[in-house]
Amino acid sequence: MNTNFKALIALAILNEVLGSGLEDENPALFQTQDAGKNWGAAGSSESASAGVEGSTNYKSLVKIIGFPFRLFMRYIRGSYKNDPFRTFLELCLVVFFVWYVSRQKYKMNQNDIKLTEKEIDELVQEWKPEPLVPGLSKTERLILDSIPVIDGQNGVEVRLKNGDMVDNFSNYDYLGFMSNNEKAREKAVKTLRNYGVGACGPPGFYGTLDVHMELEKKVAEFMGAEAAIIYSQGMATGLSVIPCFSKRDGVIVADSGVNFVLQQGIQLSRSKVFWYKHNDMEDLENVLTTTNKYISKIKGPTPKKFIVTEGLFTDTGSIVNLPKILELKKKYKYRLILDDSAGIGALGARGAGVLDYYYGEKEGNGKDGVAEATKEVEILLGSLWQAFGGSGGFCCAAKELIGHQRLSGLGYVFSASMPAIMAVTASDAISRLAERDGDGRLALRKLNENISYMRQLLEEINNNNNKSINGYASEEKRLRNKDSNVSSISSVSTNNDNFTDRDSGIIEIEGDDNSPIIHVHLTPNCMRQAVQKLGGNGGINSTQQFWTRQDEELVMMQLASEIQTTYKVLVCSSLYVVEREKEPAPEPSLRIIVSAGHSKHQIIKCVEAIENSINKLINNY
Amino acid sequence: MFAHIRDRFGKIFYPEEYTSLKEVDGYAPLITDFESLWNRRLYTRISDAFNRPITGVAGGSVALLERESKDYNRTFRLTGGKKTVLNLASYNYLGFAQSEGYCADTVEDSLRTNGIGMSMPRNQGGQTKKQIEVEKMVARYLGVDDAVVVSMGYATNSTVIPLLTSKGTLIISDELNHSSLVSGARMSGATIAVFKHGDTKDLEAVLRRRISQGQPRTHRPWRNILVVVEGLYSMEGEFCDLVEIVRLKKQYKFNIYLDEAHSIGAIGKTGRGVCEYFGVDFKDVDILMGTFTKSFGAVGGYIAGRKDIIEHMRLSCYSNMYTECMPYPVLAQVESSLQLMMDEVPDWVGDGPARIRQLAENSEYFFHRLIELGFLVLGSPGSPVVPLLLFNPGKIPAFSRMILERNIAVVVVSYPATPIIAARVRFCISASHSREDLDYALEQIDEVGDLLNLKLAKK
Ligand SMILES: Cc1ncc(COP(=O)(O)O)c(C=O)c1O
Fold first, then answer.
1. Helix, strand, or coil (residue B282)
2. Phi-psi bin for B133: left (phi > 0), alpha (psi -120 to 50), beta?
3. What is this structure's pTM?
4. Ligand 1 binding pocket includes A240 (Cβ within 6 Å)
5. To test ligand 1's pocket by mutation, which of A415, A417, A422 has the most ligand atoms within 8 angstroms of CB?
6. Is A543 helix (H, G, I), strand (E, B) or coil?
7. Which residues form the Aminotransferase class I/classII large domain (chain B) (predicted)?
8. Which residues contact B236 (CB under 8 A, 6 or more apart)?
9. pLDDT in tens, A280-318
10. Are B392 and A44 an interchain contact pair (Cβ–Cβ within 8 Å)?
11. Residue B380 is part of which domain span?
């Protein structure tokens, strides 16, 4: 098929070059003079590249169709008369191409061991492949089976498959827009009746709807950016944008706490990457200096240099020290890729994320510096599926950079555009936030109250239970890290400030005080007891002194399902594809996501559920 | 290439136009000149043929928003006008891109009872009963153990392939595989080998060499081998030679990953894709992947196959873990279109099969008529994607504009989706085209073809 196709190309090239000569397939009619003209001043670029691309096929082509070789010669002679230099150039290109191709072939098989056909056959016979995927382990199966199944609509309360109504604390719907959203639904129905569901094509090929363009405009306005582009899935955003700008020769300095999507984007870009300690600005500065040293040693042009970080970290709930980063990035001449997927819609006076949190309107001053700050961030990523209830994500940047993505952002070019329904939903959610007197502002205030309340109650758990644990020091956790190859080094411990007292009480509360995402871990003492208790229930070897990450995952899963079945609260144990996460993977935790839609009562219920479930687990009553 | 040379000169002669590409104040240029070469030199000139915005449903015909440019395509402005044209561009093979009918009604019901999105990753609370139902249905449709749905087709490939592989896995990929498959292979960290497009002889040669040589340097045997192919190549309109690949599989014991993005629903007697078309047992293909973006008129993708593989995917697929799950309206669209295709809706008996038949007829007719007219057409007869070769990138805008003047929307493709000199125009046939639509289109293409000297195969 392939040679056939190449022959076709060559055929067409000949056609281009020779004008209509080929079609008649009659050399007698062919006028040398004409051919000469065809080569003439315009010297269309395709004829030249044709020489390169098609050269090897020329011969085969000549053989295939038995087309008189003389024609070719005559044509060369003809063109030679008019433009000898061009013919010469052409010839050079052909020679170069032939050389290039043959050189590659020579190189390719250099390392091979010479084998006879028979030996190859035997080797093929002997070869026994392993199965593609290992079967699920017992723990994995337990985890898979324990993933809750929702029946019906999303909101602060959801119905599970078994009919239970549960309070939902695992939803990124910070503003509570997804509950009782009659208006949004009516709008969605209207959109459906106008646009159908899928757009049936990538944005480049008639998949760009007017609603997409409106959404892009709205996003850019909301973030104060020059332009924006939307991607149809959250994960595809990070995966496309980073490799789009940072290539093999790029240098990336990244926070070691960034979420998996960014990690994969960085990996896909194949850039040289340096990690700095999670949200540790001193370490960042150190890394930047060493990186700059490293770069100065590289020959050739200055590479593109990026700092990659999240705004609100999904996996830890901490907030980036943005002013410091902006300062450092300028000092060391880096560009910033900031992914604020989790923060947008939650942080700041008008919900524009971490930029708003630092530079937005502060009480009284009435000055909104988000737009200015956004200009400092070369590439800003956000999501539309989280707070805005649509799907996909966006990237805000300068106009040229957005234009570049429209051609080179893989997830944009090679994938279908977002369904109109989702675009309209996201767009409306943004409007609700953007308008000064919209209900979005109210929701934001409520969200902040709820977050503080939740944190306060969670901290009280430790006060209540300080004595219920008899004290082993947190030695054990460290031992676990040293001795177990399955488990990971405690990444949370690098971030001590964010924790409540580690050695007393039963839980550790991670993250910034303003973060709606709260990761709750068990203290090492508590975890030890839990692991031992569960060991009695089967699955875990109770005599073992140290526990593995899997044990911790099981404990968290057990807690989550207890909270869900007994107390009718939906909190998820955070799951990760551990073996693919950058070492160390985030510690297992309960991920609580606070929403403006939660009532005080629900928050109390949630915290009680957590407290009681933990106590039940470790004390077995 | 010539554009590149021109660029070199340009940098010397018109420095002011090139500031964004130069090193400024210690910052390396964000976009290197080579990357953006295509963009600046050629794309801007022809960009009016791409990214044309539309409104409404991309059905048999589609409403384009008219736009104009006063600065040679650097920027566009919408004029506010609309133009309804015949749509030979969208992947709406079975005509399910509709705002009325059974599917739309089902979606509306679903919107009213279940709302819109979930705002949760699937494994973090976003798993819905509907998803599981749809998965069962997909599995039943394909006659395999199990299936898992993912919220985006591109991400299905790029986030599933890494999970199927590990160090010591060899991925053998067709050279023309879709970008999503390439991304997935790259993210996996496995060794990647490439075979010539559609050439099973070359595949066999690669297999023999790679299996006998083992892993690079260590020469240890491979853990396993995954051959990644597409059912229907959307830029070529060609089927993969599945029969031969399955034969090779039995001999060389590799696993097959078949991407049926374009073929599912559109090919085969009952729309079950290339396996059905070639009479290959579905179970012989280890991983069946497909997207709902095309024939189903929805978005997203699925992976179907053996239970052990699918369970693994369901638990650890990156998209299930870290990003949004499939929203309700999309699930409803998939469910309802699948029901129609399996002919299980009492009120709409025969609707789905009729679409499949109509599509087959349309594609066959269109393909043969183009050949009769003397165009150089790529691909296999019966494919709903019919690419017609233009070769010269210069003809891209000419063709696209002329045919648009005649009220037909087509897709013209060239770099980066195809080699620069193999530019082509691609017609996507749909079941919602009537014979008159096609005849009209053929007539117009005929005229344009004469004007642009495209009938290269004419005897
Ligand atoms: C072979 C192949 N795989 C995957 C995809 C991506 O699918 P989606 O558009 O649903 O992201 C496409 C789309 O063009 C495709 O052609």
1. helix
2. alpha
3. 0.82
4. no
5. A415
6. coil
7. 84-445
8. B176, B197, B198, B378, B379, B387
9. 999 999 999 998 888 888 877 778 889 999 999 998 899
10. yes
11. 50-96+351-452
